[in-house]
Specification:
By secondary structure, the chain is of the alpha+beta class. The chain folds into two domains: about 120 residues, no CATH class; about 220 residues, no CATH class. Helices cover about 55% and strands about 15% of the residues. It is built from 13 helices and ten strands. It has a four-stranded antiparallel β-sheet with strand order 3-8-5-6. A four-stranded antiparallel β-sheet has the order 9-4-7-10. A two-stranded antiparallel sheet has the order 1-2. The radius of gyration is 31 Å and the shape is elongated. About 20% of the residues are buried. About 10% of the residues have low confidence.
Length: about 400
Amino acid sequence: MCQKHEKGESCAAIRQFLLVLFVSLWPLVSVWAAEYRPLPPAQRSGLSSDWLIHDADRNRLVLYLPDYHTPAHAYYQWVALQPMHPLLISFTAREGQSLFLDNRLVFTAASTAPYTLDLSKLLPAGSVAGPHLLCVWHPEVAPNLSSFTNTQPTVTLAASPSKTTSNQGLAQPVARSHPGENVFLCFLLLIGLLYGGIRATYQPGFARIYQIEGLWSRSTAQQEFLIKPTVTWLNIMLVLVFSLSFALLLVAIHTNVQNIVILRRLFDVPESALVVRVLLYTVLIAGFVLGKYLFLELLSYIFDVSELVLVQYREFIRTILFLGLFLPLVMLLYLGLNQTIPKTVLWVSNGVVSLLLVGTVIRVARTLHRKSSLFNLHLFSYLCTTEVIPLVILLKLIVFTY
């Protein structure tokens, strides 16, 4: 009898202990369960800086981290939309950039320009208020996410009686300046001041390089440049100014350069950091120009044509410095006409860059042909290795990519 009574008390104590343990651990269990429960998309009144990308391996959307993920062509974001409540966004779109709402195409940019768009008007008839998935997509390059901002509705937009569903009616280019216009203008003024200061300080050497009538002549002044020292303060300063001009053009117009995988791996600079990108490209271009001498020395040793290195490099320096004088003029054209005729500005820029690259190779080949005939297969192979192949690579990266 005593044994049964003791067993009953033991069972009751065990049940009581388990009950207390369960009650104590229940908050932890609840937290653990809530942590792994799928959460609904966050409700937002407009756009935020948190963009999503599609994870193909797990077939879901994940938060895009610029310093971790590779840039993609499509970015997503949940936005709260109501059919009768305007939600205006502003952004700068490249030609061909498209916007989707719930996997439905709602807008395609006809040209590279800033746009203002009311997302609520793009909802199909009968849509309910709630979260909708916005997608920004471009077939060739990563969209400029930093340009997407929320815009307050104005009286003109709110009172507009137009009910058209045309993309051009819902989003028109905004008549305003480029977001980086002030930065580009300041750099352009700096380039002008540098050219003016160098010309005033080194007038004879400056005139010898930038002499249009002697571009294809055999004048004594032009031939003296090929025998003078290459590493001078004048040449170094002019190379730096040329690099700054070329970098400014790349950042302003040839924006696809920043999407080169190798470049982004080594120097991942945000698109909004215009000053940093211009300075970075300036250093890279100057390093390429000055470092080409070592490249020529190496290949000339392999091809056994070391006596041609100095003449070839001096002609290379003289030609890029002369043709680089036209790069600031292209930037002036960009700042003045890019909002109205962007395609024309792009064609002019591509033409000037192509002239710079191709003209340099032609001048170098002409100078080398005077020293030793290019009909020599050995010398022709050396010219192709040092000039033609780098020319094709640069044309592909800068001109034909865009």
